[in-house]
Design the sequence.
């Protein structure tokens, strides 16, 4: 019977882990039910059982793009990609970048190279990595959510037109949404995050959903026009809608897209499930988890560079020991052939073995010294928690004050430190009311305010609540509508 491999597919989005445990045997996947938890105990137990861990992560500040650069060495490519990413973001924090070579071509001013790259704030990536670091040796990849989604769609659906045409993908979550454009080779050309999602369960409202999709359709239309302007000669024809398999939601989305006049052919997720025992509806709801199994060849791996270096050193150590062992065995056989063994040969063998033992001891000492360096991580974490992981209150207050529109009233702000994964983070809530002519105008104002806050280097928006019920009257034809924004503050030294 073929040996099975136990794989844990993990999706990290909206501050929560979701996962499935699968058995892979002869290329076929058999998966258990989906699990999710805001606590660490169940998730850590699943990590311990797994032999390999695949991770998909949703980073709101992530950038996907293509870049055309001069044809230079591999080291210089990384520098040019990092510079390109910095020019496309307003964030001041350090970025972690990765890229994939797309093609080489002759430019007007010399040979050129086109690359697809992804950039994510290092603070966000390392925050996730520290949660998983205990199982770092099992983690095969960390892939962005847009990359996992477009890869899964491309390989599961496999339409003929996908080999030559770009397409749009829209994913809808409970607290956020994203729009992405995929190239025919499953590489993400553009991705856009929006800090608004679609409520589930008892909180779902058809009226609210229709308004949400109307706004989303405007964002899609703007993204398509911007994309076709940047990539001239490209005409987008197809759109995939994933993340919510409810028929009512699909109908509302299709209606909003038709009303907007975008002119895209809408596909509602995958039509078949690649997981045994799963329906297409289940696959569409959790397509980010499935995407982990298709990303091996086309995804940009976001595993930190330090971990990749460590794995390379371990491989070098193991290869060195194996090579030395084989060499000793060969020399031993040669030295003790049927011919009489001379003293010279024995002396040579002894010298070689002595050299091998000396080399082995030196390599062992080097490895121990490398392990000693890891103890300093604790001191660094102490420094980060004590000094660095404090919000820059002066810059935060002055910057947020400049972002508040005149008709958005802040009535209360509450900020508290919270322990998360062994580190201290700062979370808070901002509440108040919006003066607007009607509910829709109030929502637009809140959306603009939320986008400004999300772009701030001091603040990350994690949730938005808008309360149009029982609005107060402003007395001049306008009304007041309540709102509540949940925030996560950036530590000192990692903001502006």
Sequence:
């Amino acid at each position: 019977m073929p040996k099975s491999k136990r794989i844990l597919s993990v999706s990290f989005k909206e501050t929560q882990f979701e996962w499935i445990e699968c058995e892979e045997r002869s290329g076929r996947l058999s998966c258990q039910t989906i699990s999710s938890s805001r606590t660490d105990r169940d998730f850590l137990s699943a990590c311990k059982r797994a032999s390999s861990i695949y991770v998909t992560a949703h980073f709101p500040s992530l950038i996907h793009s293509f870049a055309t650069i001069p044809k230079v060495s591999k080291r210089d490519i990384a520098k040019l990609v990092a510079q390109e990413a910095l020019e496309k973001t307003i964030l001041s924090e350090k970025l972690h970048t990765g890229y994939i070579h797309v093609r080489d071509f002759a430019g007007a001013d010399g040979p050129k190279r086109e690359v697809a790259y992804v950039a994510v704030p290092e603070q966000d990536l390392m925050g996730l990595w520290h949660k998983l670091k205990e199982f770092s040796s099992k983690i095969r990849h960390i892939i962005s959510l847009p990359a996992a989604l477009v890869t899964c769609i491309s390989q599961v659906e496999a339409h003929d037109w996908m080999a030559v045409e770009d397409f749009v993908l829209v994913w809808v979550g409970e607290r956020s949404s994203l729009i992405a454009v995929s190239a025919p080779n499953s590489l993400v050309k553009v991705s856009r995050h929006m800090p608004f999602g679609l409520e589930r369960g008892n909180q779902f409202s058809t009226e609210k959903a229709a308004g949400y999709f109307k706004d989303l359709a405007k964002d899609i239309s703007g993204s398509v026009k911007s994309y076709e302007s940047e990539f001239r000669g490209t005409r987008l024809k197809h759109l995939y809608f994933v993340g919510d398999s409810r028929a009512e939601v699909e109908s509302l989305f299709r209606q909003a897209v038709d009303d907007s006049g975008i002119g895209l052919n809408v596909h509602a997720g995958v039509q078949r499930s690649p997981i045994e025992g799963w329906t297409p509806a289940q696959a569409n709801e959790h397509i980010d988890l499935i995407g982990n199994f298709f990303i091996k060849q086309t995804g940009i791996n976001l595993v930190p560079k330090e971990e990749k270096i460590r794995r390379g050193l371990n491989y070098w150590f193991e290869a060195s020991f194996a090579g030395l062992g084989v060499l000793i065995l060969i020399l031993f056989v040669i030295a003790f052939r049927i011919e009489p063994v001379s003293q010279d040969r024995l002396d040579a063998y002894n010298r070689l073995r002595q050299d091998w033992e000396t080399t082995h001891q030196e390599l062992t000492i080097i490895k121990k010294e490398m392990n000693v360096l890891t103890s300093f991580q604790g001191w660094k974490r102490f420094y980060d928690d004590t000094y660095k992981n404090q919000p820059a209150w002066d810059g935060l207050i002055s910057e947020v004050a400049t972002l508040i529109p005149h008709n958005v009233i802040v009535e209360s702000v509450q900020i508290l430190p919270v322990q998360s994964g062994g580190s201290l983070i700062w979370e808070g809530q901002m509440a108040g009311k919006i003066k607007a002519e009607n509910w829709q105008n109030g929502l637009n104002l809140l959306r603009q305010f939320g986008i400004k806050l999300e772009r701030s280097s001091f603040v990350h928006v994690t949730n938005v609540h808008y309360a149009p019920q029982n609005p107060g009257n402003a007395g001049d034809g306008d009304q007041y509508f309540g709102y509540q924004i949940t925030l996560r503050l950036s530590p000192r030294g990692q903001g502006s």
Q: What stands out?
A: The chain has 13 helices and 18 strands. The chain has a mean pLDDT of 81. The longest strand covers residues 459-473. Residues 211 and 485 are 19 Å apart (CA to CA).
